[in-house]
Structure of MarR family transcriptional regulator:
Amino acid sequence: MATRTDPLTLEVVELIGTVVARYYEEYEEAAAAHSLTGAQARVLGLLSLEPMPMRRIAQKLKCEPSNVTGIVDRLEVRGLVERLPDPADRRVKLAAPTEKGTRTARQLRESLDFAREPLAGLSDQDRAVLRDLLRRMLGMEPAV
């Protein structure tokens, strides 16, 4: 497949990079407001969706399981995460948010205005088109 270096493609790539950079900057600021690192906030946010074993967290965040263990250890000390036996395999421990952790993850999500505010300025149809284009870029199935 030939790489596209036409001006439009280059501009789109630059805009995507700017969006990602702004998102990460705001995410780090939101995490710091809760005395968390960005990595801790990402793990907490992921766990707020569903409890999961360390290995799966590491796969989703594309990092080493030993790094995740350290992050979960620090979140556990803060009372944001707990380790529970996996009902499907009692040898496996799941990391799960505590009530305080769930509340903190929600506050983090609610404080992220960068993506939400500009998206609110788009019509439902425009947001659906953007979503579908992003899903297509990522090789995901179209939304139903």
Observations:
- Strands lie at 52-53, 81-86, 89-97.
- The CA atoms of residues 45 and 105 lie 5 Å apart.
- Residues 7-33 form the longest helix (27 residues).
- The chain has two domains: 25-111, 116-144.
